[in-house]
Amino acid sequence: MNGRAVGAALLSLLLLSGCSAAPPREQPDSLCVSARFQAESGDALQGGAAQFSGEESSHPLDSGGEIRASGLPRSGELLMTLFDQRQEVRGVMTLFFDQGAVIDATTDEDGVGHITVRDDTEEVALLFTLTEDGGLTCALRLPRADSPEEAAPRRGA
After folding, report:
1. Rg (Cα) of the chain, in Å, rounded?
2. Could you tell me which of 26, 32, 24 has the C-alpha nearest to residue 117?
């Protein structure tokens, strides 16, 4: 059999077996994080940037204090650094990612963020709050009912 015949035979077997030819996820062990950064007053932090350890560049905060970072590991430890407009450090937080039965994000008494995601979670929405003493807290960002795009359920949430 030549290469074309083998390819056609394999394609036929795939179609007959009911498998789809959907492309695989970019990195099966990666996670997308959408995050909002705010002051204790609830006001969005603007003009700064956030960077996760292992990344070469930082993510600029938009006018709503938000970033979106993809390709982050689903488990393990990351250091997240928050910069101001002058690229000076405003806050640093260690984040531990783990997999579990529910999606959750908390900050322990030592200021360490613990994020739990389910196996089927592709994106997690987090809320980081900068305290007056320069510390950061981490929580799960829940959708607001007054925002149509935020009221829609997130895949894997």
Report:
1. 20
2. 32
